[in-house]
Amino acid sequence: MGMKTFRSEASLLLISFLLLTACLSIIEAQQCRPSGKIRGRKSPSGHCNIENDADCCTQGKLYTTYKCSPPVSSHTAAYLTLNSFEAGGNGGAPSKCDNKYHSDDTPVVALSTGWFNNKSRCLNNITISAKGRSVVAMVVDVCDSTTGCDSDHYYQPPCANNIVVASRAVWKALGIPLNQWGGLEITWIDA
Ligand SMILES: *[C@@H]1O[C@H](CO)[C@@H](O)[C@H](O)[C@H]1NC(C)=O
Ligand SMILES: *[C@@H]1O[C@H](CO)[C@@H](O)[C@H](O)[C@H]1NC(C)=O
């Protein structure tokens, strides 16, 4: 093998290596890694609101926190949960986007921290699809993935990073039988 051939093969190898490294770092950047962990604290008795099956932090258990959510695509996969957005409901405080409560008969949602993206989707609509049906719902609140297990979060664990919390109007519009309300694989897209 002549020196010239060797050089061009070596540079081809180098270029391939650089390309591969670049691709891997792009994939890396798209992955959403945990930002930390918090240790569950027991809620003062009666302080964890267990309406709608919301679970309370278990003392000593480690909960993973996230500042990001999976990348948004044309059919972002998410897990739909149920909560109230009304005053006195399980949602607690007024919605972060407008500091208001919302009727559970209106299709409203809260998104995990990463998708909420520092209020960038506030009062915008998303289209939620499941089982061949879809519904347009307004983003009004965040489901905090960065912290939890404290009085501000009703002693509930941090939100997973792929959650769409929906009012009952959303569940109704999707035609989900009442006995299945609470947890469902869905996809969503900005409307
Ligand atoms: C969120 O938005 C506010 C207001 O636009 C800005 O001041 C703040 O730096 C942003 N925070 C992050 C983490 O991007
Ligand atoms: C979202 O949908 C609601 C109800 O249909 C509508 O009133 C509102 O204007 C929409 N928001 C945006 C930003 O398009």
From TrEMBL:
- Chief place where the protein resides: secreted
Tell me where the signal peptide lies.
1-29
**Family annotation (CDD domains):** DPBB_kiwellin-like
Keywords attached to this entry: Secreted, Signal
What the entry lists under Pfam families is as follows:
KWL1
Q: Where in the cell is it found?
A: Secreted
The family assignment reads: Belongs to the kiwellin family.
**Could you tell me what this protein is called?**
Ripening-related protein 2
Q: Which organism is it from?
A: Xanthoceras sorbifolium
